[in-house]
Design a protein that fits this description.
heterotrimer; B: 972 residues; Ubiquitin-like (UB roll); FAD/NAD(P)-binding domain; six-stranded mixed beta sheet; 28% strand; C: mainly beta; Folate-binding fold; four-stranded antiparallel beta sheet; 11% helix; globular
């Protein structure tokens, strides 16, 4: 009996054109007519960890340093580390092979705690301003940076990867239970800009362009 | 009506025909028309009837200053037709009329004004007492203007945005545009709000010279073009600012244009600095019948012609107190309006050029004269002019009377932001005196009139706003200040408040039909402050707020009180400054709720999902709201329940135990490996706020659950109560990380055995045990053996992404044992039979741990931990007069009292927390919080249920648990 | 809506994102010798100053920090710099 699968809390109306099975997850790689975006992508299958320690800056994870101050993020080897506060970071696996789980009680696997989404390509800040008063275009903030606050009324962790209008992008997580409502809300807000679901491939391609 | 079609100032497109329906007829308007101008163009002069007296009302202003032209549009009442653009096929109805606006059967009310003095219904209709209920009905019927059908559906798309700005400029006239451009030049992000559908303000329609042969309207367009070409200015047109709050939070409503994806949207702007450049409206002239259709303000008459191509009348008389009136008279005369007289309230001070031009046009110009009476039943036919002393009179025939006493700065946004206003003797206006930090005012609002001064003051405000945002602009500021000083300052304004009349039909507020006489009545009765007069007479409480009475009311009060310093202030305005649709405030759907990972599985099994706190949960699995089948199946076979909403947390670190000891009442150092500990949290009053279980998964590493409702507050609670201690512990909320299946019933083990990869026998996994194992060699499970519903049961915590798979596996494995889903209601009955409490159901804010019989969860000996609630628990341990939880059995099992019914004797002695018919016990049983003496076993409780009509219900206090008191079934 | 709170981690934010934690009263007192009145006073009595008070706020929708700010209760505006927890 092998009908054991892991399910993302996200379900879009349109069906993906290309999928693959990965660690019991069905991952959408492509959708029909993805065109130029803006895109909303479900990344809930990507591993996430919470990492807390009183001396957090002294600890290295996979050879990466923890960003110096809250709000800063660090992207390396397909992993993004977001400094949340004095003692806590969130770690999101974005691309490449899934890294091994560090053997350290300071880590908690939180993959299933949140829904993980990417919103990118053009017009995305016209969409976000309909959903939140959080401001992503602050000239004083260097990408990538983390904002923690309400997005469509739901507390989120939001990482701005790029602010340039034609190729901007954010990644964000919120409580898993809100997945359906937050997605409905984002899609509704983005309808006038042609926001559509897309598969993981287009994001990987975009990340490669962004960070090489 | 033929339009003037060659004017460069027009904002209409005569080629675009738009039809509208009014009074069962179809009329034609044109592109660019507002509803009001389209009706006016079709000869409609009476738009509505007034609130109390049903007086005919017409077009008086063009920016929605009063309710004269508020009409019902496509079923929406009270729409301001002056600034609502005409759309094809609109159906328009006049308001507050029986019959038509022209022939209103209620028109006789105007002659009954003697019977309706100020505050008449406060004073007259309550004596003798039986009158009031009758009067009330009549007053209710008469009150209000528009009516809405109760089943009216508001169509359209309503949205919201939260744009960010360094500087927010309110008002897109010359001062506002200058301020925006100046601030933008400093590299700042600027938002510019303009309530009309175009930028330009009071330059937009004027043909007078700006400078060097450029007309004002040309200058306005030049500025507007520059603004639109400046990338860091974001302009919002057709956007009325409605609110200003602390920290420069500005709210506004935008009306969508043709290409927009919304009908209206709410805009909330947090700006570092704000510039208010809202300009002026006109101060209405107070004389008899001053609101008769055919009487209108200067800018209304002028803009009808210049913006909409409509000559406002045929034969006009002007009674004004400002040079703008002279300018308009000349311009309109050039456009073809016959003007017989221009009466200027002012004896002197006019622009000599304008006076000379009037003479050239052979328009008779009277200094120190004013209109005192408009004749004509339904619209103006004649006007009586008088010297301002009232010594000489002259009657003049006309169909248009342009009347205005002076200017009223639109200080609403400033008032909302708590700026101080003061009366200025020179201009005769209330001008801003002290502004809040990082808020600036510019333009006509400051009493300025000269075009160059207005722009310079905009520049100055823009620079000050830039300085607020950290720009270095000192040199520019100095230079601009000097330039402004060299330009003409505010001009002397007209001070006349009331023409020499008695004022029985001189309206100080149109919306509420408040006359000068009403205000005098209020003052005579001792209401000696403007705010009190406002409340007693209702002046300024209509949709236009102070659009009409804004300056006149305080000035009139000051005159009456012989207050030469005019210490009276304009009455407070409130947001929304402009009436706004509630639909726009509501915006998009904002209700966000959570779904458990078993949501879809339960729904497809017939679960009826209901909102419960932040979650959607399965309430029932059948149409039987008593849930008999669900309940009996748990008692006899096995049921599965989605408990994923439980709060779930990890806490770890060197000081984790200290933190647990602080917030849990019990002694948390006594948690054995492989066992769960039931524990409760109290607040500092010893009142129970939460219960749950704690397990120890490793050294200084715990996993615990909380009730559903506390999941969102638990980390906050731990951190709050340890905030001074500097302890080293970490927490993470795993509520959404795990789905939870509660597998309960005598056959629960048989089901679990089939799927678990471990020995789950009673010996290997006993009651209150904790185990971690896998299911189907794949799904990691944290299993807790508990008994909330009073049967053998397991809580299986699995990663949420596996929940649906596990749900399917368990359902499949349980098939042979008749496994069924059970929902919240069934669980509620099951746990009640077992006497288990739910925090919030059997407890309330005042309920201590002692009161609900959970004293055993408190350890009195850990004083060093400074446990939250411990002090109060000690102090209330033996306290008398508390409500205590008691189980009861109904004498008549066929009638179960409703939850919340009260326990009574000669007074209220408690209430029923929950009561249900128990299918297993064949009794009606329940739990109640009662005065402690009543909690004694055997006490007869008298229960008063809503609508019991004096027939009390009776129950007897019995020991709990009702079901399986020895607890054998949990340990099976 | 209008209130803003400056979080030491997330900077100035809309007041709706925060939960109020009361005026700062110092660490929990020792349990010895507390009478019902003195305990009740400690828990419930506030000075309700018209002016500047030091108070606790929790960034519930954001970083999850408890911190103190100084707020002028007459203007509902923050003064001074908040302290980090």
């Amino acid at each position: 009996m092998k009908n054991i699968i892991r399910r993302s809390p996200v379900s879009f109306d349109s069906r993906p054109a290309k999928t693959e099975m990965r660690d019991n997850w069905t991952v959408a790689l492509e959708y029909e007519a993805e065109e130029t975006g803006p895109y909303l992508i479900d990344l809930s299958h990507r591993a996430r960890w919470d990492f807390q320690d009183v001396d957090i800056s002294k600890i290295q994870t996979w050879g990466m340093n923890v960003p110096e101050s809250p709000g800063q993020c660090l992207f390396e080897n397909g992993i993004i580390i977001n400094r949340m506060n004095r003692t806590q970071v969130s770690i999101w696996h974005l691309s490449g092979a899934k890294p091994d789980v560090p053997d350290n009680p300071a880590f908690t696997d939180v993959t299933d705690t949140t829904v993980f989404l990417a919103l990118f390509s053009k017009d995305i800040f016209s969409i976000t301003e309909k959903l939140t008063s959080l401001y992503f275009l602050d000239p004083l903030k260097e990408t990538p940076f983390l904002l923690q606050g309400p997005f469509s009324h739901i507390p989120c962790q939001i990482v701005t990867l790029e602010k340039i209008p034609e190729r901007s992008g954010i990644l964000f997580t919120c409580s898993r239970g809100y997945a359906r409502d937050i997605i409905a809300s984002i899609l509704e807000a983005g309808a006038e800009f042609g926001l559509r679901p897309a598969g993981e491939n287009v994001l990987i391609k975009w990340l490669n362009e962004l960070w090489g | 009506m033929n339009r003037l079609s060659q004017l460069p100032t027009l904002r209409i497109n005569p080629a675009q025909k738009i039809s509208l329906n009014y009074k069962r007829k179809t009329y034609q308007g044109i592109g660019g028309d507002t509803i009001a101008t389209a009706l006016y163009a079709n000869g409609i002069r009476i738009f509505s009837r007034s609130l109390k007296y049903h007086r005919p009302r017409g077009l008086y202003s063009l920016d929605g200053e009063c309710s004269n032209t508020r009409m019902e549009i496509n079923g929406i009442p009270n729409v301001c037709t002056e600034n609502t653009l005409l759309k094809n096929g609109m159906t328009i109805k006049a308001q507050n009329v029986i019959g038509t606006a022209e022939n209103d059967l209620m028109g006789f009310m105007d002659r009954l004004d003697w019977a309706m003095p100020a505050g008449f219904y406060y004073r007259t209709m309550h004596k003798p007492a039986p009158i009031w209920p009758i009067a009330l009905k009549q007053v209710r019927k008469a009150a209000g203007l528009g009516k809405i059908s109760p089943d009216f559906q508001m169509n359209g798309k309503y949205e919201e945005i939260y744009p960010k700005a360094d500087v927010c400029v309110i008002g897109g006239g010359p001062a506002g545009m200058s301020a925006a451009l100046t601030a933008a030049k400093q590299g700042l992000r600027v938002i510019l709000l303009e309530s009309r559908p175009w930028l330009g303000g009071f330059f937009d329609y004027r043909a007078a010279e700006y400078s060097n042969g450029i007309h004002l309207f040309e200058r306005a367009r030049e500025l507007a073009k520059t603004v639109s070409e400046t990338p860091n200015i974001r302009g919002f047109i057709h956007t009325a600012m409605v609110g200003a709050y602390n920290n420069n939070l500005i709210t506004a409503f935008q009306v969508g244009g043709e290409s927009d994806h919304f009908d209206e949207r709410y805009i909330e702007i947090r700006a570092d600095s704000v510039v208010v450049a809202t300009g002026c409206i006109e101060r209405p002239l107070l004389f008899e019948n001053n609101e008769r259709p055919g009487v209108m303000q200067i800018s209304c008459a002028h803009r009808l012609a210049r913006t909409y191509g409509l000559l406002p009348g045929e034969k006009a008389v002007f009674s004004i107190g400002h040079d703008l009136g002279l300018e308009a008279a000349l311009d309109l005369s050039n456009l073809g309006l016959k003007i017989s007289y221009v009466a200027d309230i002012r004896e002197d001070g006019q622009d000599p050029g304008l006076v000379a031009d009037l003479a050239k046009k052979k328009i008779r110009f009277l200094r120190g004269w004013v209109a005192i009476l408009a004749h004509g039943d339904k619209s103006v036919k004649k006007v009586t002019l008088s010297t301002i002393q009232g010594t000489h009179h002259r009657d003049v025939d006309c169909d248009l009377l342009v009347a205005s006493a002076g200017m009223t700065p639109l200080t609403g946004p400033l008032t909302l932001a708590q700026a101080q206003l003061a009366y200025d003797n020179h201009t005769g206006c209330f001008l801003p005196k002290k502004l809040p930090v990082k808020m600036h005012a510019a333009g006509r609002l400051m009493g300025l009139n000269d075009p160059l001064s207005i722009e310079a003051s905009g520049n100055l405000a823009g620079l000050m706003a830039a300085a607020d945002c950290g720009a270095t602009v000192e040199a520019d500021l100095k230079q601009t200040r000097e330039r402004l000083n060299d330009l003409p300052g505010p001009v002397r304004g007209c001070k006349l408040v009331q023409a020499p009349v008695k004022g029985r039909k001189s309206f100080i507020c149109f919306d509420e039909d408040t006359t000068i006489k009403n205000v005098e009545q209020a003052l005579e009765m001792g209401f000696d402050a403007t705010e009190l007069v406002k409340r007693f007479t209702a002046a300024g409480t209509g949709p236009g707020q102070w659009g009409i009475p804004g300056h006149n009311l305080p000035l009139f009060v000051a005159q009456y009180l012989e207050d030469s310093t005019v210490s009276a202030r304009p009455t407070t305005v409130r947001s929304p400054l402009v009436p706004a649709f509630i639909a726009t405030y509501a915006g998009r759907n904002h209700d966000m709720c959570k779904r458990t990972p078993a949501h879809d599985s339960q729904k497809s099994s017939g679960g009826i999902m209901r909102r419960s706190g932040v979650w959607k949960r399965a309430r029932y699995f059948s149409r039987d709201s008593g849930c008999r089948e669900e309940i009996e199946n748990v008692r006899n076979n096995v049921g599965m329940f989605d408990a994923s909403t439980l709060g779930k947390f990890r806490i770890w670190g060197p000081d984790a135990l200290k933190a647990l000891q602080r917030v849990y009442a019990g002694n948390m150092s006594k948690i054995s490996d492989g066992k769960v500990k039931y524990a409760a949290m109290c607040n500092d009053d010893g009142c129970i706020i939460d219960d749950g279980v704690v397990v120890k998964r490793g050294e200084n590493d715990y996993y615990f659950t909380t009730s559903t409702g506390r999941a969102g507050n638990t980390v906050e609670w731990f951190r709050y109560h340890t905030r001074y201690d500097g302890w080293d512990f970490h927490m993470i909320n795993l509520t959404d990380a795990f789905g939870v299946i509660n597998l309960a019933g005598p056959n629960a083990r048989k089901v679990l055995e089939k799927v678990a990869d471990t020995d789950v026998s009673n010996e290997a996994f006993p009651f209150i045990g904790y185990r971690e194992f896998t299911i189907n060699n794949e799904i990691p499970v944290r299993a807790l053996r508990l008994g909330f519903v009073g049967e053998l049961s397991y809580e299986l915590h699995v990663p949420s992404s596996y929940m649906q798979s596990l749900w399917g596996l368990v359902a499949e494995a349980g098939k042979q044992f008749d496994i069924q889903n059970f929902g919240l209601e069934a669980q509620n009955v099951l746990r009640m039979e077992k006497g288990h409490v739910i925090i919030g159901s059997e407890s309330e804010q005042r309920t201590t741990l002692h009161d609900v019989g959970l004293r055993f969860l408190w350890d009195r000996n850990k004083t060093q931990a400074k446990t939250v609630g411990a002090v109060a628990l000690k102090q209330t341990e033996k306290q008398e007069g508390r409500l205590t939880l008691a189980g009861f059995k109904m004498e008549n099992p066929s009638h179960t009292p409703k939850d919340g019914s009260i326990i009574v004797d000669s007074s209220i002695r408690g209430y029923v927390c929950i009561a249900r018919f128990s299918f297993v016990l064949k009794e009606s049983i329940g739990l109640a919080l009662v005065d402690s003496p009543l909690a004694k076993e055997g006490t007869r409780l008298q229960i008063y249920e809503d609508e019991c009509k004096g027939q009390h219900l009776y129950g007897t206090v019995v020991p709990t648990p009702f079901y399986d008191p020895e607890g054998k079934r949990l340990r099976m | 809506m209008a209130l803003t709170i400056t979080c030491p981690i997330c900077d100035k934010r809309n007041g709706y994102e925060f939960r109020y934690g009361g005026v700062d009263k110092g660490p929990r007192p020792d349990e010895e010798g507390l009478t019902p009145t003195s305990w009740c006073d400690h828990v419930h009595m506030n000075k309700c100053v018209a002016g500047i008070q030091k108070e606790w706020w929790f960034h519930r929708d954001g970083c999850g920090a408890w911190f103190t700010i100084y707020r002028d209760t007459t203007t509902n505006l923050e003064v001074d710099k908040p302290e980090a927890n």
